[in-house]
Design goal:
With about 230 residues, this protein is mainly alpha-helical. It contains nine helices and four strands. The strands form two sheets. It has a two-stranded antiparallel sheet with strand order 1-2. Strands 3-4 form a two-stranded antiparallel sheet. α1 crosses α4.
Amino acid sequence: MDMLTAKIEFGFDQLTARSGGVLDGPSHVAMGRRAAAAIGYALGSEEEARMIEAYLNVWRLMHLPHLPAGSRGLTRDEFVRSNLALADGSPADREAILGALADTFFCLADVDGDGRVNREEFWAFQHGHFPELTRAVLAEAFDHLDTDRDGYLSRQQFTSSIVEYWTSRDPDAPGNWWLGRPAYMSAATGSATSARAGAGPSAGPGVGEPVDRANVRDRRSHSTPLDAPVTS
């Protein structure tokens, strides 16, 4: 298995860890709720509803077009095929589809609207998508993605990391660390679970513990390309 396929398969397994191995509309509702809760939006609030709608529109725009007729969601094989097709397609297509999606994700992650994503915002955003990844794993991921070591992810660092994770075959691409230690590195060392292992001293509490919201106060809502309702 090549490194890109290993990354995509690991990413899918994490995305669907709580949805029975299928990526579908309801799983995106759950992602939106988890992300909203991690940020601190109240259950049933307008902010939570906006977050859920944004995630549903990701499903409608990014994944629903690849859904086989009569299927309720994408399986692992279908997801891998669609992502490999995007990775092997034209750079213009990658930018139009995944680049635009990454930019929208940046707007969702940048809760305080300061034009960059701090460590707490990164945790909250990633927890919505990948709830089984621990704070330790995501702290290690952040440390590798923050290539200039300023304690933040710029828009460019954030968006390029997403594109690199899902499409790059370059073993030195920083984005390979989007979900922590790359899956192909884990396979090479014979440790299928090392991507969930503890990281260095920057790691915080584990999964399920409340996020420290000190750095994501004074929140404001963002208008993104995916905020408007879309019919499937």
